[in-house]
Amino acid sequence: MATGRGRKGNRQARMALGEHLREFRNRLIKSAAALVLGAIAGFLLYNPLFSQLIEPIMNVAENEDRFASINFDGVASSFDLMVQTSLFLGLLVSSPIWLYQMWAFITPGLKDKERRIALSFMAISVPLFVGGVFLAWLVLPNAVRALLSFTPEGGSNVITAQLYLTFVMRLLLAFGIAFLLPVVLFGLNLVGVLSGRQILKSWRITVLLVCVLAAMAAPGPDIMSMFYLVIPLLFFFFLATGLCLLNDRRRARQAAKHETETETGADTATSADELQNL
Fold this sequence. Notes:
Layout: H1 2-9, H2 17-44, H3 46-63, E1 68-71, H4 77-93, H5 95-106, H6 112-148, E2 157-160, H7 161-178, H8 181-190, H9 196-201, H10 203-217, H11 223-267, H12 272-277
Parallel strand pairs: 1-2
């Protein structure tokens, strides 16, 4: 009975190598199917999305009396760009599914507490990443307009479509990853690497680093583009710091309670029945 309960409660820890491989194959097939379906959706949305992507450049050309356009420098360049954009959209759209498949493969080998923590981290990380990507989408027009403003008078901007797509993807990913900062800090606190007080003591250098990273991730000379990223990052940093301090207090209370129970148990004589059971 004990073996059955252990296998049911921790199934993957007792799976044979062949079962592990079959489990991994099934999870991989489901993830690939979700990616393909997401890529198909991205293919259907490619034309309206591309129109939205190049709208900042078209606005510069119309409103600032400068020549700016997207250039496809090869016969197959437009097709390659469509495929890459569709795959990128598919990866974003299907992220909840393949993330779930990944954690569903990993978590059965964890303890109950570790499994709850892992699933909680995944549930928090996805909306934070999506929120960062959405904020980057809002910042994109200002960043493009600011960067094109450096073009000398009489010059023109003939922008390669591939390079422009790379710029947009890096901007979206930079904002999305930056929004995962509180999850990383709280995770380090949970495993005991960083305490809340250590994080709080470094708030000055953190503010400086956040400003530098925001200036690099939001490539625009206008101050507002940088603050669009600085303000939420600092908010999440201090929110994570507060959660770490609360977790440190909870951990300290548990340690004090355990110490008290240990001292109380040490002062109590062990009965003959307990000694016999031992």
